[in-house]
Structure formats: structure tokens, C-alpha cells
Amino acid sequence: MRLLFSMLILGILAFGSRKARADDLAFLTVSTDKETYFVLEPIRVRIRFGIEVEVSKTGLIQLFRRRLDLPVQVTAPWVEELSGAVLAMNQKKLSSSDPSVLGMVLNDGQSLALRIGDQQKDNNIYHVFEVERTYLVDEAGVLEVPGSSLRFAFATSFEEDFLSDRVPVDRHDRNVEGAPHSVRVQELPIRGRPVDFSGAVGQFSVEARVGKAEVIAGESLKLQVTFSGTGNFGHFQAPDLSDLRGFHVYGKIEEYGQNELQVTYDLAPLSGDVEEIPSIPFYYFDPDPPGTYRVVNSLPLPLLVQGPTSADEVETLPPVELKSLVPGETDIFGLKAVAMGPGQDRVKRGVVEADEELSGFFLAFVVFTPWLLWLGFLSGRRAFGHYRGDPESVRARRAIAAFRARVHRSGFDLCDGFAEFLSARLRFRAPAVIDPNLRERLSAVGISTELSNRAASMMETLVGCRYGSGISPAAAPEVESLVKELELAFQTMEEEEVSKS
Question: 69 and 125 share a domain?
Fold first, then answer.
């Protein structure tokens, strides 16, 4: 009896010891790099959790049917929609092929956590993992980050079943709570703010490249400017360049990558006196202490432009001074005058006067003809280039190029692609062409009645299929053929208009 009582006491003590140890098996914290941020400054919020080394290595039990590298569940409903903030465009990328990246469950979906090493805490050593999100706040105030929780199960003893799988003998479920976190967000300083500041906050660099270094005045060229660094990409405007001296700016295209923005500007030099694309300044706010506005400039790019110089710099030729005839120098002398009959003197003098008038005309012809020829050539180029440089024409060229490149790709939406092509050619927004008046609109710009009818019918068919049984990939060749006919018709009308101008 005494032995049985002793064993009971030891069991109770062992259970209490195991429970106390279980309470120290894991931890979870929510943190940021600092306590105070500026408006639109990226805020990295980290959910960091640790699991005691021995439990992490051998004691964790799978929570779900699908086996996970790290069988834990972190609950943080605010991760995707944090009140008062928006997710930044550039998030930290994790790759499942990285051995330090493990699969786990975040809220109700599978996610990835980064193993960041070991940490000693209260005489225990933990394997530590991290989930990170970056946010932006556009108003000053306090950003509250709610608490989170970590759920996992473990056992201290396992058995093998007939399939040689480990079966826990003493399963224990644990839920660890993490405290909420808050940061203060302050306004950007007004003092020292540049006039051209467009909202960029972070650290940036800028690099510019030009597609070709030799062009003709008025010819379009592509200037590619890349803004790189760590900052609030997607929440600031790239430089406009509309006042770039010596150039006309048709427009720009923006493409975002990981921690970079690439802007392609469509430019045209206005005259032959342009020798370079000047440096492009980019103003931003650097939030690192003490917090200040900075500017970074791209390098100027040499450019050779063929063509006349600016009108205000063209030098005019000096007037020609006509001197009187000097015998022996500018006139033939020593010849006797020939007697002329009545009327002959008038004919002779008429020839001389005609010669003098011809000489003046010839002089003007020699001086001005090269310039007139150049201006005529440039005018013709500009008339033809109207369709190349006009933003709507650029949009049309890109629409047809995009359609041709994607029409046979899997998943390409024929309805959207056809609508975008027609809207670009008709200079409307895409939804505007999906209406009963498409036939009339095409006819109004000069497309034949037969082709207008076919295009309108095709648009109706594609829209009907989208909301019915879906668009069959077999329709792609027919749509592609129709787009080719329409594009040929539009190009023919453009060429005729250019020839008239």
C-alpha cells in the first residue's frame, strides 16, 4: 500500500513537472524595427515564434492531413488586412527550395516561415522562425497591430503502428498567445520639401539608358529610367519630364519589379542643337535619422541629332551688294556698238534685264533650296510620324502587338484582347466598344460596311460566349484573321491621310 501511494505521488509530481515544462515549450512575439515611422515609410512587421529544440526535432505532431515541414498554425487575421495600413507592393520573397524555409499554416492557408536560427530564453533553447509582412500608412497617428497566437501539438512518447508510422502515445495540444504591438507614425516634414517631391520615401538610386544614340530631329526614341532601392514603390510618381528642355514627351510606360520601378519614356528631340539627354533628378525622403529630403540624378546621355537647329539660332545670310559695272573689270569693253534697227534696242535691253532678274532668282534658289528641301522632308516625316508618336497611335500599335503575341497563349481572353484592339483603334476605352453601336462606329471612321458587320458580330459572339459556355480556343484563328483585316484597313486609311497632308 505504501509503495502504491509513493508511485502515485511520483506520478503527480512528474505530471506537474511535465506541464510546467510544456508551458515553456514555445513563444510568439510581434515586433517592428523601430517604434516611430514616417507617413509612407515601409513598416516591416515580424511574427517571430520559437519552439523548444527537443520538441521541434522529435516531438511535434502533424495537425492536418497534409504533412508539413513545420506542423504549427499561426493565427493572425490582420496579416492581409491591417486596419489603417495597406500591404506594400514589395514583400519579402521566400522560396520553398531554400532549406531554411519551411511549410506551415498561417490562418487557414498554407504558408512559408523562415528559420532564422536558435535563441536562448529562460534557460531554454528554441528553434526560431519568422513570418514577415511590410505595410504602408498614409496618415499620421498610431498603428495598432493586434495580437497573434501559435498552435501546435507534441508528444513525449511514440509507438509504431503496422505501417511503421509514429503514433503519439501522450498527445498534448498547446496554444501560445502573442501580445499586440503598436507604432507611432508621424507626418513628413514640410521644411526642406522640394517642389518636385512626389511622395517617394526610402533609399533610392536611378539609372538611365537610351535605346539609340543617333536620331533625326523629331524622331521618337526610348529613354529607360530605372529607380531601385528600398522604399514605397507603387505609392509615388515617376518624374514627368514634360518640361525636359529640347524634347517633346509623348508618354511613358511603368513596370514594377522586385524593389525597382522601370519607366520607359517616349521622347523626340525638337532640333539638331540637342546634344544630350540631360540628367534626370529624382527627389525622395530618406527616413533614416535625422530624416531628410535628398535628390539623386541619372547621368546625362550623349545624343547625336541630325537636323536643323532651333529657329531662334539659325543665322541669316547677309544681303548681296550689287555693284555698278566697271569697264575692264566687271564688263567687256573695247567693242564697238552694233547699229540696231528700230525695236532692236528694246529687244536687247529686254534680254539684259531678263538676265539680271534670272541672276537674282538663281541666287535665291541656291541659298534657300536646301532649307526648303529639308523642311519638306521634315514635314513629311512629321506627317508620317504623327501616327508613330501620337499617344493614341502608340496605344494602337501596342494593342496589335500584344494581341499577336498572346492570341495563341493558354488562358488568353479573346474577348478582352479583341475589345482592347478595337478600342485602341477607335480611341475609346475598352468597355465602350462592347455595345450595339460598334458597327456604326467602325463605319463612321471609314471601315467598310461588310468588315464593320463582321467585327460587330464577332464582338457579340465573344461576349455571349464569355457569359455562356465560355470561349473556345478554336476561335482564336478566326479572331486573329479578322484583326489582321481590320488592322490593314486602318493602316490603309492612315497612309491615305498622310499622302493628302
Answer: yes
* The total number of residues written for the chain in this structure: 501
297: CATH: 2.60.40
Where does residue 233 rank: exposed (0-12), middle (13-18), buried (19+ CB within 10 A)? Answer: buried
**Contacts of 381 by beta carbon, 8 Å cutoff, 6+ apart:** 216, 218, 219
pLDDT on residue 383: 45
- Decide: helix, strand or coil at residue 218: coil
Query: Which residues are within 8 A (CB) of 230 and not within 5 positions of it... i.e. 6 or more apart?
Result: 42, 202, 203, 259
Helices (runs of H) and strands (runs of E) counted in the chain: 8, 24
Full-model pTM: 0.57
Q: Are 389 and 250 in contact (CB under 8 A)?
A: yes
The answer to whether residues 280 and 142 belong to one domain is no
User: Are the beta carbons of 342 and 182 closer than 8 angstroms?
Assistant: no
- Copy the grid coordinates of residue 327: 569697264
- CA angle, 155 then 160 then 161, to 5°: 120
C-alpha cell at 180: 499586440
Residue 151 DSSP SS3: strand
Instruction: Find residue 230's DSSP bridge partners.
Output: 203
Domain that holds residue 182: 23-186
Residue 417 has a CB neighbour count (10 Å cut-off) of 22
CA angle 289, 293, 299 (to 5 degrees): 120
**Per-residue pLDDT tens over the stretch 92-117:** 889 989 999 999 999 989 999 999 99
Copy the grid coordinates of residue 276. 544630350
Cell for 74? 499561426
- Name residue 287's amino acid: P
For 316, phi and psi rounded to 5 degrees? -85, 150
